[in-house]
């Protein structure tokens, strides 16, 4: 399998990597450069300096110091990108609200995807409420890719969490379109979760209908429908682990009326608990 012949980000042309310069950003950096190659996309590496509400002079001084401190790291990113044939720009800005700055920079530079690392794997009682990745996801950027430290994607198996919300339907369409540009994609698993046994038949029908569409469109790809009852995050993450998937695709924070799986809690839990990459898709 040639890893560089795949693209799980579709036809993205501009990628924004939000990095804090720590080892937890290393996996995101490596995959960002890989996706730059796979998509033929340019890469923007962004570092946001947290500044307090203070005078403009002191804020500028703090940003200048941070630019000097992180300059060797940013140069390493530029060198890695050059060596990989990826166009790369590095940016350092200051903000009192870093998550807003990340999204503003992504929109201003017309990025298709924001790529971020994850600081460890969250415990079952931790919802990532204070994490930067969680805050950025909550701002509703169209595509945010979260990557655990040292995780490598092969592009062979994607799991899609399904409900009837607009964001989930968009995630399903994005997944079904991967057959165009992701030649290494072998399997797509669709998972729906009902809160009670009475909702299981509807969940089963939802994923079976999606898989039937997929099989008709992409006969070369294996489609699997999974439906369960219980805590949505647990079932999604467990299904992903059991199948050793590359990536989970999940809708963003706004959920639909049935079965109301993906209020922000579930999306955040999946991002915090998953062993693999998570792509959050928002309409």
Automatic annotation (TrEMBL):
Source organism superkingdom: Bacteria
Keywords noted in UniProt: Membrane, Transmembrane, Transmembrane helix
InterPro entries, sorted: Rossmann-like_a/b/a_fold, Universal_stress_UspA, UspA
Domain UspA: 13-138, 157-281
Pfam family for this entry, one: Usp
Gene3D superfamilies: 3.40.50.12370, HUPs
TM regions (residue ranges): 125-147
Keyword Transmembrane helix: yes
Family: Belongs to the universal stress protein A family.
Protein name: Nucleotide-binding universal stress protein, UspA family
Protein species of origin: Desulfomicrobium norvegicum (strain DSM 1741 / NCIMB 8310) (Desulfovibrio baculatus (strain Norway 4))
Lineage: Bacteria, Pseudomonadati, Thermodesulfobacteriota, Desulfovibrionia, Desulfovibrionales
